[in-house]
Amino acid sequence: MQLTRKLTFFIAIAVWSVLGVVACLRIAEERSLYRDDLRRDHEVLGHALAAAVSEAWRVSGRDVARDVVAHATSADSPVSVRWLDADVLRAEPGLAASVADELKAGVMVHTLFENSTEPQLISLVPLRPGKDAPFLELRESLSSENRYLGRTLSHTVVATLAVGAVCTALAFLLGTWMVGRPVRALRDKARRVGTGDLTVPVVLTQRDELGDLAREMNHMSDALARSRAEREAANAERIRALSQLRHAERLATVGRLAAGVAHELGTPLHVIEGHTKLLDRGEAESEEETRESLQTILRQTARMTHIVRQLLDFARARTPHKTPVDLRAIAEEATSMLTALAAQRDVNVQVEGEGCVVHADESQMLQVATNLLKNAIDASSPGQRVTLEVSTAHADDGPRGVLRVVDQGSGIDPEAREHLFEPFFTTKDVGRGTGLGLAVSHGIVLDHGGAISVDCPPRGGSVFEVQLPQEAQ
Predict the structure, then answer these.
(1) Can you tell me the distance from the alpha carbon of 107 to that of 100, in angstroms, rounded to the nearest whole number?
(2) Is the pLDDT confidence value at 431 over 50?
(3) Whether the Cβ atoms of residue 129 and residue 148 lie closer than 8 Å to each other
């Protein structure tokens, strides 16, 4: 509506200005026409009187002619007629200077006196050519002109007001219908697009620029809807592929852990086997030894059950569920799972730092910590140490929990570091790595709104740092 009001205002200003100029020109033209009519009336009357007076002068003498002039003016006539001699013309220098030459030539002269209290039109009609010839004076007041112009002005003003009002109202109505209504429809469409609603088209039947804009907006909405659908389908496919990739990496990690788990299960199985044989042969010397053997079997069975449950929980694929998770507990559990692998490679694994709670999926964070710790163990030589450091950092979006996995290995080549988080990229020998662990870990951390980075200090080794938000996002 603001645009309609502005257009109506400027159109009204233009219309009223044009009508005002036309009205002024008409008043001026009417004044000129009215005075031209008075002059023609004076010329007709003046020539007729001059002919009659000249004939009376020729036939009956000067006195009779003057008497004819004296009786030529009636009481109800707007024109007064007088006989003037040449000496009267000489008595009024201003008048004489302007008309004397024309009167001497026998030409009728019209003069307007507008500076007096009552404007008048004066016409001087020479009776005969010559220097001292008398002439007739026709004098008529212009008060009727003012009345005529007043009526003309009132009619013009009324007509101007009517035309201006009609034009203004028509401009407002047309602006509302042809501009205001389409603009409101386009505005509502833009707001719906801004909120993500691309389904409702804007319908404008008019064939102008606003109609073209409406059709283009509909085409744009359709294109955006198709693009969004394609993007959502691609994202869904990517999520499915990533989920499968993570699950595959879990299974690959489980396979690599199988040897360590077998070692962990082997010891309690040997213990159970020994005590079972002891009880089966009846070699227990007392009831106390029998009870102690049974308790040993129960403890070793519980230990094996715990190991198997850890492995199954780690390998099971499920929908991420973010809850408050202690990063130190994650680090300790990952260390516990890889104890056998660390012992096999003679690598000392330590966990440092206080507890730090982050908002994350516990199973996925365990997968990240296990991947990073296993890579650190694989990169370490016998006798070296791997440290899992837990701390807190502050970022622009709030506090963050930090898990750093530090090893003392040979480090990572700068060229390899650029591709480290790409799927299927690995620096390990054939058969020792799939190249998926770091890629999956990188995706998990990004999905949690965190960041993962790698650094190789000058002293050697490598440092993988994971930052995770401590608050729900």
Answers:
(1) 10
(2) no
(3) no
Given a contact cutoff of 8 angstroms between Cβ atoms, the answer to whether 421 and 452 are in contact is: yes
| pLDDT tens string 55-91 | 888 888 888 888 888 877 776 778 888 887 777 665 5
At residue 430, the pLDDT reads 43
For residue 175, give the H/E element and its range: helix 143-175
For the residues of 78-102, what is the DSSP string, one character each? Answer: SEEEEEE-HHHHHH-HHHHHHHHHH
What is the pLDDT averaged over residues 252-271? Answer: 67
Which residues are bridge partners to 323 per DSSP?
A: 360
The answer to whether 7 and 170 have CB atoms below 8 angstroms apart is no
Q: Is 391 left (phi over 0), alpha (psi -120 to 50) or beta?
A: beta
Q: Which of 84, 82, 83 is nearest to 92 (CA)?
A: 84
pLDDT tens profile 357-383? 998 988 889 889 988 998 889 888 899
Cα diameter, the chain: 190
Q: C-alpha distances in angstroms, 202 versus 207, 208, 305, 382? A: 14, 15, 65, 72
For residue 82, the tally of other CB atoms under 10 A from its CB is 14
pLDDT, one tens digit per residue, over 154-212 is: 888 888 788 878 888 887 777 777 777 777 777 777 787 777 777 778 777 777 777 77
What residues form DSSP beta bridges with 189? none
What 3-state class would DSSP assign to 472? coil
Closest CA to 437 of 420, 416, 461: 420
